[in-house]
Amino acid sequence: MAAGAQQGAVEVRESVELTEKEEQIFGRLLDVVRHFSLGTQVRVAGGWVRDKLLGKDSTDIDIALDNMTGQNFCERVNEYSEFLGEEQKGIGVIQCNPDQSKHLETATMLIDDIWIDFVNLRSEKYAENSRIPTVEIGTAKEDAFRRDLTINSLFYNINTKSVEDLTERGLEDLKKGLIATPLPAKSTFLDDPLRVLRAIRFAARFSFTLTEDLKEAASDENVKSELGSKISRERIGHEVDLMMSDKHPVDAMCYIRDLGLFYVVFAFPEKLDPPVLDTHDWLCVSHIEAAWNLAHSIGSSVFSGGSDPKSQDDQKRLCLYSALFIPVRNMVYVDKKKKKVPAVSYIIRDSLKLKASDADTIVNIHVASEKFAELVLLESNENLETVKEKLDDEYLEIPTDSVKRVLAGLILREIKGFWRVALFISALINPEVGNASGSLSKQGELNQRKEKYLSVERSITDLDLDGVWNLKPLLDGKAIMGVLEVKSGGPLIGKWQQRLVKWQLAHPKGTMEECKEWMKQSQQQSKRQKVECST
C-alpha cells in the first residue's frame, strides 16, 4: 500500500456552499431554463461537487443536461443574453473523440470569466473487443454509474440546490476516504483501462485508500495488457505527469509499483545495455521516495531556479523524474540510426510522449550530477590535483585556489538554471545505495547527504557563480583570430574559446587586455617549450 493511504474518516461538508460568482452563474442558467420554458434539470457533475464537499475551491464546472445537447443550451444562453441587451459569447464545440475519452459532443462557453462545459447526460455500453462505447442520451442515474469512480459520480442539482448521490456510494466513500468504482472494477477497467491510472491519481491526491477489489482488478493481467495495448502513450503520459505535478507523487509511484504496473506505464526499449531487471521498479520508486525525504529536509531552495512559480513547479517535476530514473540512468539502447541513446530519453519521449525538452533536461541533469561528484570531493580537497590536471593544458594553468571555481563554473554553464536540481540528484547518487529509501529513512544518512548538498550550494553562491551561464566571453572568435594572428577559424579557435571561458572563471575580474596578454604569453611560452624539447 502506498505511504499516504488514508486512516480514519474524512471531513466532508453536509452541503455545497456556493461562492458569489457561482450563485451568479447558476442563477443565469436557471433564468435561461425559465425564460424559454425548457424544463431542463441542470446539474454540475463530477470533480467540482467532490471538491466543494471537501471544502476545496474549484473552477472546473461541468454542466450535465437531461433533455438537450450542450450546444443547444449554449445557444439559448446567448439568445437570453441578446434579450437582455448583453454581449453574446462564442461557443466552442468539442467533437466526439473516443481516443481522448470524448464519446459525446461537448459545448463550452465563457460565463462570468469562467469556462464552463455543457454536455447532456449519457449512458455508455461497451461491445466486446471495443474500447469505444455506444453512447446514448441517458438518465442521471445511468450517467452516474458510467463514471470512473464513486467519488466522481456525485451531482449538484442547480434546480433543487441539492447534492445527488445516485450510486448511493459516492458520499459514503468520500467520507471513508475510499477509491472505488460504481460498477464492478474489472469490467470498468477493461472498458477504459486509463481509469486505473485515474484511480491511482485520485488516491494519491487525496491520500485515499484503493479498495481491495479495485486493487485486484488493477493488478489483473488482462487489465494490464489492455492498458499497455489499447491506451495511447500520450494519455498515459498525461496521467503520469498530473501525478508528478500533484501533492503526493511518491504515493502515486508506490501504487504503480505495488499494483505491478511499473513496466506497463514506463515501457522500456528493447535490447538494453545493461538489461532491465525485475527489481528495477522497486529501485526506481525507492529513489523517488529518497528524493522526497531529502527535498523536505533541505527545503524549497532546491527548486529555486527562477522567480516564476511555474518554473519552480517545472523544476520540481523534472527533479522527481530524474530521481525516479536514477537506477536506469546508465542504460542505453541503439536506435534506428545506430546511435546509442539513454533509456531514460526513450521512456520520457516514447513511453510517456512528454516534451523532447523534458527528456533532454532529465538526461542533462543525470550527466551533470555525475560531474558534481567531483565537486563534492573538492570540498575536502581530496581530488584537487586530479581535477587540476584535467583542467590544465599547455596554454593554461589554473591557479590552485581557482580550481573549484573553474570546475563548478563549467558544470553550471552546461546545466544552467537546473544546477541545484543536478546537485541534489548528485547528493542522492553519491555514494550509491541499493535501497535508497531504506538508507535515506535513517536520519544520520539523510543529514550527511543534506550537508553535502548545502556545502556545495554555499560554495557555488560564495564563488558568485549562480547565473554564470550568462557570462559573455571577453573575446569573440574574430578577436581570438586577431591575437593568434591566423586568417581562418576552425577547431583551433574552438579550443581557444574553451580556454578563454576557463581563464575568465579563474580570473573573474580579468579585463580584455589582460586576457589578450595571457593568450600572447601562453603562446610564446608554448613555442619556447617546444623548441627546448626538440633540442
Automatic annotation (TrEMBL):
Every Poly A polymerase head domain range: 43-179
Transmembrane stretches, start-end: none
InterPro entries the UniProt entry points to: NT_sf, PolA_pol_head_dom
Annotated keywords: RNA-binding, Transferase
One GO CC term on file: mitochondrion
Keyword RNA-binding applies: yes
GO BP, sorted A to Z: tRNA 3'-terminal CCA addition
Keyword Protein transport among UniProt keywords: no
Signal peptide region: none
MF GO annotations: ATP:3'-cytidine-cytidine-tRNA adenylyltransferase activity; CC tRNA cytidylyltransferase activity; RNA binding
Family note: Belongs to the tRNA nucleotidyltransferase/poly(A) polymerase family.
Name this protein carries in UniProt: Poly A polymerase head domain-containing protein
